[in-house]
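Section 5.1 Outputs to date
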Amino acid sequence: MMKFFRSLLFWEGLSFTVAFLGSRAMDENSMLWYSSLARSSLTPPNIAFPIVWSFLYALMGYSAFRVARKADFRALLPYMVQLLLNLAWSWVFFHYKQPSCALAVLFLLICSLLWTAAEFTRHDRPAAVLLIPYFLWGFFAFWLNFYVVIHN
């Protein structure tokens, strides 16, 4: 039972560590820059982002935990890739203020999510299903990022 909780804590902790590191890209300067951008009318209020992302990171961590219990590390490689791309997007978009490059990162992130879901499906179908909200949010984020690129 202790191994179960340690593993769950590890995968959730890894996901939320990425969340924390990504949030470090959003300093006062970058948020002032972001507020000055032309944004889609579909852009949620700023308060929605940490709520949605907390939910998504929790799902991501639990999904990885489920696969880690059934498969070797190779099954988690695409998950690790998407975590790195997730982190990179925050820094490229907010810290470096490069929406066009961030859009490319987001495209790669969505591709890596498809890879992750395909790999997870082979080992634990519910783990892949848990990624659906993240995948949908990724497409929504792509639209928001695309809008910023086109209108700024």
